Amino acid sequence: PRSTLFPYTTLFRSRYPIPWNMLKYDTSKEGYVVPLDKARLEKAPRYQYEDVPVYDTTYGKRVNSYYGVDW
Fold it and tell me: Which of 8, 11, 31, 39 could bridge across to 15 with cysteines, CB 3.0–4.6 Å?
């Protein structure tokens, strides 16, 4: 079965789920990078630290749709 858990990035207390297949590991940075600019990320699906959504298929499809990534 497909995992509906996403990695996320944080800006202050907001969390931004990002589809796994958007992540690319950069050994020179020793971390993951994504092809997003600040404006795109600011409009992305997000949630507050205290308000974690249900990571179900519907939520996963909504996140992937925003980023234009196939489910």
Answer: 8
